[in-house]
Amino acid sequence: MNSFKDLIVWQKAIDLTKDVYSLTKNFPKEELYGIVSQIRRCAVSIPSNIAEGQARKYHQQFSHFLSIAQGSLAELETQIIISIKLGFIVGDCKDLFDSMHSIGKMITKLKHNLLQENDRSCCPQTTNNQ
User: Fold this and answer.
1) Is 93 in contact with 84 (CB distance < 8 Å)?
2) CB distance 95 to 43 below 8 Å
3) Does the structure show a pLDDT above 90 at 53?
4) What would the pLDDT profile of 72-106 be if each residue is shown by its tens digit?
5) Is 64:118 a contact under the CB 8 Å cutoff?
6) Euclidean distance between CA atoms 112 and 10, whole angstroms
7) Is the pTM of this model over 0.85?
8) CATH superfamily label, 4-122
9) pLDDT over 90 percentage in the chain
10) Are 25 and 83 in contact, with CB atoms under 8 Å apart?
11) Where are the chain's structural domains?
């Protein structure tokens, strides 16, 4: 892999961020520096942390940044739920929640793959020569 831009999870996180910006543009103006700002910041944090982690030298560092992205994803989901309960979001958010769930699964799988790859590279299998 040459770039974080090649990661499908990063691409999906960018699309999620665009969707979040579209969703929040109709929130009450008095929430611009409140929940709108918070929702947008955590949405932006997801692809940003994926990109920063991929640019790191070691798999453990990448895994750490993926954990941060997962935390931002959970924070985003919580804030969307709060916004629904406050009446700022009217209508079905199933596609948005499905997208968040899919990204979460992809991050988990990527972390798992990184840890497996890290285990193989630092602890090579030994053969028994008797």
Assistant:
1) yes
2) no
3) yes
4) 999 999 999 999 999 999 888 999 999 999 999 99
5) no
6) 16
7) yes
8) 23S rRNA-intervening sequence (1.20.1440.60)
9) 80
10) no
11) 4-122
Tally Cβ neighbours within 10 Å of residue 53.
Answer: 25
Q: Confidence class of residue 15 from pLDDT cuts 50, 70 and 90?
A: very high
Identity of the amino acid at 114: L
Q: Which two tokens stand for residue 106?
A: 């992809």
The encoded tokens of residue 30 equal: 């008095």
**DSSP codes of every residue in 77-130:** HHHHHHHHHTTSS-S--HHHHHHHHHHHHHHHHHHHHHHHHHHHHHSPPP----
3-state secondary structure of 56: coil
Give the position of tokens 């997208």: 99
Question: What pLDDT band is residue 123 in, cutting at 50, 70 and 90?
Answer: low
| Distance (Å) of CA 96 to CA 50, 59, 66, 78 | 19, 29, 20, 12
